[in-house]
Write a structure and sequence with these properties.
Number of strands: 0
Structural class: mainly alpha
Oligomer: single chain
Shape: globular
């Protein structure tokens, strides 16, 4: 049935779309031009290093030890900060956040830390933050990081206060890894490469530092870790790339088309200022839209080119990554209607508030 629907949709597109008109031709060309820009500016020096870092996090970090800090015996002072930043630590994306959230919630993490993790997880993975910063500006990238972490903790605390699910108390000590120091150095070198690649410094100095950092990473991967561990790291990196890049490229292409087809007047009318209604509207749009991992960046880039203000930009990024219509259905089944709709309302509320604040800074 899915294959039939796909064939039918493709047939209808080629049958009805007036490809001989200037607007359609210019829109398609703009989609390819935007793809070329991403390939040249953001893939090799931003996304590829981020995928290697995600692979490092996924293979070499003890995930179970981090998740234990979320419950069922975690203290509030430990569980909420861990829940808020663990999306970056665990490199979770929108496709993996729901089963992870369901697991920690059902195992007794408490509704507060669980919802904190659910909100912040997909929005602060390292690839998303760096791509946001590189494409949309470091101010927005850092604002997204700060606003998401802060809002996540506040949402979790309010949910805990409303529904009185606190877990059982206590604190799990994370077991120290024998390779902890080596993993930290390995991770830091890769992160350094990603940071250096975005610096506007002398090209000779920049590429010399990047080459030295890359060589150090290769040497560590070959000589400092077991062959099986290095192989798993490369396989996990490739797994991230093949899952994310196709959706990203499709998103970039259609975002390029969107900038030509969508009337600018509509965007400026509803999202063109930093007022309450514009930020609220952006949050509601984000709540229902589905963003595959990283595709929110080119979509937001296209809307900004059409006149979307910076406040609604942040509001859309915050709500859009944390919620979508499919995820809302799953969350409702896990939480029940009362808790789920309270959570949805809080996401829209805090996305709107932080959008207003950022828009007036």
């Amino acid at each position: 049935m899915k294959e039939f629907v796909l064939v039918l949709v493709i047939f209808l597109i080629f049958y009805f779309v007036p490809f001989n008109t200037n607007i359609v031709q210019n829109s398609i060309l703009n989609g390819f031009l935007m793809l070329q820009e991403y390939a040249r500016e953001h893939v090799l020096l931003c996304l590829v290093p981020a995928f290697f870092i995600a692979g490092t996090i996924s293979v070499m970090l003890n995930k179970s030890a981090v998740l234990k800090l979320l419950g069922p015996k975690a203290k509030k002072i430990i569980s909420y900060p861990v829940a808020a930043i663990s999306g970056g630590i665990l490199a979770v994306c929108s496709c993996t956040i729901l089963p992870l959230f369901g697991g920690i919630y059902k195992k007794g993490a408490g509704i507060g830390p669980a919802t904190t993790f659910l909100f912040s997880g997909p929005a602060i993975n390292i690839a998303a933050i760096f791509l946001t910063a590189r494409v949309l500006g470091w101010n927005l990238g850092l604002a997204r990081l700060f606003a998401t972490i802060t809002a996540a903790i506040l949402i979790g605390l309010i949910m805990e206060s409303l529904f009185q699910e606190k877990g059982e108390g206590g604190f799990h000590i994370q077991e120290e890894s024998k390779n902890g120091t080596k993993v930290l150095i390995f991770f830091s070198l890769q992160l350094s490469f990603l940071i250096i690649s975005g610096l506007k410094i002398n090209y000779l100095v920049k590429y010399s530092l990047m080459s030295l950092t890359s060589l150090s990473v290769v040497i560590m991967a070959v000589f400092f870790f077991k062959k099986k561990k290095t192989k798993s790291w490369l396989e996990e990196t490739w797994d991230f790339a093949k899952k994310i890049l196709p959706y990203l490229f499709i998103g970039v292409f259609f975002s390029g088309i969107l900038t030509k087809l969508l009337p600018q007047e509509i965007v400026t009318k509803f999202l063109g200022n930093n007022g309450i209604l514009s930020n609220l509207f952006a949050s509601i749009i984000g709540m229902f839209m589905y963003f595959a991992t990283l595709t929110e960046v080119p979509i937001v880039q296209a809307l900004r080119e059409l006149g979307m203000a910076k406040g609604p930009t942040l509001a859309l990024l915050m709500a859009g990554n944390s919620l979508s219509l499919p995820s809302m259905i799953v969350i409702t089944k896990l939480f029940g209607r009362k808790k789920a709709f309270s959570y949805f309302s809080l996401v829209v509320l805090f996305s709107t508030i932080f959008g207003i604040i950022y828009g007036h800074i």
